[in-house]
Amino acid sequence: MTVLKLCGTTSAGDARLARRADFCGILVEVSWTERSLSLKEAREVAEASGVRNVILLCNPSASFADEVANTLRPYALQLLCHEPPALVAELKSSLSCEIWKTVHLPIVDGQATPAEYADAGADALLVDSVDASEGKVRLGGTGKVGDWSAISALRQQTEIPIFLAGGIDPDNIADAILTVKPYGIDLCSGVESRRGKRDPDKVKLLLRRFYEAVGQNPVSSSAEEH
Question: What is the pTM (predicted TM-score) of this model?
């Protein structure tokens, strides 16, 4: 069954809105996004989520990643930016949580290939879109739909789980699942009223259409029980 991650969570209230998803994504010390939190703020949000937390970091040092993992005890750390495969391997060998890696198609400068991250031990790959329309590069949370055919091809070539991200919302989530058949869906801006603030009505509609698309009753779903 396809799983769901709601990302860019910035408050305890928004974390509670994610309780029927499978994962709650929280960004820590990511300079280019309004959705980023301090480590202290992230702890408060993580404690409110009630589901498996994924903490997103951008080009962290190994020591900072270790501090974050030991403080927040997440299900996974997600490396969001230009981290080398060697860091994936180092964190995979030193931390007890899963290590996920965001990649982009086409590959952005400074990133390795999806295969190289998989070979380094990444537990999952999240394929996202890039946006530089506002004068700074955003590696996620862009609202831009990626190349689904390329992502579908990558999924068929890759043994580890693939999450589809980039421009997913209540209107296209069913098509995304049918077209790409990813392990998971990852979205952020598609359920926001503004950057960093979730819209409860959009979340409700997204969840209903997600569960319809995967053929599961939301009332009896395992996600409902988190």
Answer: 0.90
